[in-house]
Please model this.
Amino acid sequence: MKFFIDTANLEQIKEAQALGVLDGVTTNPSLMAKEGIKGEKNIIQHYVDICNAVTGDVSAEVIATDYEGIIKEGEQLAKLHKQIVVKVPMIKDGIKAIKYFSNKGIKTNCTLVFTAGQALLAAKAGATYVSPFIGRLDDVAYDGVSLIAQIRLIYGNYGYKTQILAASIRHVMHIIQCAEVGADVATCPLSAILGLLKHPLTDSGLAQFLADYKKING
Ligand code: G3P
Model:
């Protein structure tokens, strides 16, 4: 399974990259706003800075919601860097735009996906990635991980190449459950990636090893 980091925070992106297990980055307008990145010029520069900090795909989201606007914005974003993936919302004009980008060889991430039907449409349009938001589904008492499993089954039935990018991941168990049901990618906050490291028996075991070493070696 690939690990993406879901943030626009450059320090966290660099920290995850330094771990050696990072495969890409996802951003969205809310994450950019959280970092205080304002104005078109600064936003563009920030995407370039993120691309230069990592080796994998970097999702940059369009703001336009009409077909022509999505195409114009997406083509501009795609020209910024070869690692850019154009993130497009799951709306009618978005699906049409994904088909256009797919024909042009521009990578896309279909975002704000909450049903298997939406994921099926994204795959048929040729999206590179589909982003089901599992945490937000859990928030409203639907099982987000079950949606990942359902999409995996459907994509397998027809051999769709669209990669399932589990998004809105909130904690370590989400990552593990997504791996169990075969998500291609998990995009996570840094805290969830680092959370995978942790177990109290690892900490107490290491403390014991170091204490025993000290006993015999002073
Ligand atoms: O990648 C999508 C993600 O940023 C949404 O996460 O936590 O806002 O539901 P969240």
Summary: Residues 2-217 form a domain with the TIM Barrel fold (CATH 3.20.20.70). The chain has one domain: 2-217. The mean pLDDT is 97. The pocket of SN-glycerol-3-phosphate is lined by residues 6, 26, 28, 31, 131, 133, 135-136, 167-168, 187 (CB under 6 Å).
